[in-house]
């Protein structure tokens, strides 16, 4: 299964994403924001960082990068697209996910471990977790305060599109209903503020992020008829 890690000017978690894919033994390329062909790839990772200096609003400029047209096409074709932190912001700005990420409630950049509840393991990104499981994944953001209108929120809840919530009263940023990550209706595009690629090894405090990457691989193998553990 081949992964692309999209690199915008200002991305800074691209190497972590690349290493996370290497850790699950799969081929991965860095793909520069000017690229216009993603047909080689089975999954697209939009990493964290400060694309285009976070000017206007995080992710607002990145939506116009040439590669984003291809990311939209990949999503429409049913490929798996995962946006982490700035990647989540890019997905909302480009309309692949509903809602927006606003400044954190306390207007501060926050960087610490956070507990997340896995609300759904019926997505290609979470099939290796249990529903209701609480996992430890770090956050590092200034604009993670998820907001959407009432109608959208009701739809997200009804369709099971809220995939992660901050657990145990630990909402760091004021996001609606403690939302930490959502997916699209079809389930092949997921955005989340916390960083699973920084939770790949107990040495760094947690390895709970690893199952996100093995979930993606597992989903792809199931879909493509390969042995799940092969
Ligand atoms: N780690 C990140 O991706 C940070 C995203 C964005 N620059 C923010 O501060 O919200």
From TrEMBL:
Catalytic residues as annotated in Swiss-Prot or TrEMBL: 85 (nucleophile), 195, 197
Pfam families associated with the record: GATase_5
InterPro entries, A to Z: Class_I_gatase-like (IPR029062), PRibForGlyAmidine_synth_PurQ (IPR010075)
Keyword check for Nucleotide-binding: yes
PROSITE patterns: GATASE_TYPE_1 (PS51273)
Entry's Gene Ontology cellular component terms: cytoplasm
ATP-binding recorded as keyword: yes
EC number: 6.3.5.3, 3.5.1.2
Biological process (GO), any one: 'de novo' IMP biosynthetic process
Subcellular location: Cytoplasm
Involved pathway(s): Purine metabolism; IMP biosynthesis via de novo pathway; 5-amino-1-(5-phospho-D-ribosyl)imidazole from N(2)-formyl-N(1)-(5-phospho-D-ribosyl)glycinamide: step 1/2
Function summary: Part of the phosphoribosylformylglycinamidine synthase complex involved in the purines biosynthetic pathway. Catalyzes the ATP-dependent conversion of formylglycinamide ribonucleotide (FGAR) and glutamine to yield formylglycinamidine ribonucleotide (FGAM) and glutamate. The FGAM synthase complex is composed of three subunits. PurQ produces an ammonia molecule by converting glutamine to glutamate. PurL transfers the ammonia molecule to FGAR to form FGAM in an ATP-dependent manner.
Subunit structure: Part of the FGAM synthase complex composed of 1 PurL, 1 PurQ and 2 PurS subunits.
Name of protein: Phosphoribosylformylglycinamidine synthase subunit PurQ
Species in which this protein is naturally found: Paenibacillus beijingensis
Originating gene: purQ
């Amino acid at each position: 299964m081949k992964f692309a890690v999209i690199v915008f000017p200002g991305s800074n978690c691209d190497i972590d994403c690349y290493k996370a894919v290497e850790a699950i033994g799969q081929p991965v390329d860095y793909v520069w924001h000017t690229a216009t062909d993603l047909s080689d790839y089975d999954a697209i990772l939009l990493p964290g960082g400060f694309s285009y200096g976070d000017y206007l609003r995080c992710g607002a400029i990145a939506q116009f990068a040439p590669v984003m047209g291809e990311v939209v096409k990949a999503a429409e074709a049913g490929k798996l697209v995962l946006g982490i932190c700035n990647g989540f912001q890019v997905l909302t700005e480009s309309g692949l996910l509903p809602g927006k990420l606003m400044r954190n409630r306390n207007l501060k950049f926050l960087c610490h471990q956070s507990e997340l509840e896995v609300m759904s393991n019926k997505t290609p990104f979470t099939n290796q977790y249990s529903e209701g499981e609480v996992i430890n994944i770090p956050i590092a953001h200034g604009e993670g305060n998820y907001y959407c209108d009432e109608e959208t929120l009701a739809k997200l809840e009804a369709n099971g599109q809220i995939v992660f919530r901050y657990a145990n009263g630990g909402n760091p940023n004021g996001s609606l209903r403690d939302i930490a990550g959502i997916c699209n209706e079809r389930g092949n595009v997921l955005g989340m503020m916390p960083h699973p690629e920084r939770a790949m090894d107990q040495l760094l405090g947690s390895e709970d992020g690893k199952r996100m990457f093995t979930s993606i691989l597992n989903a792809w193998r199931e879909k493509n008829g390969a042995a799940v553990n092969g």
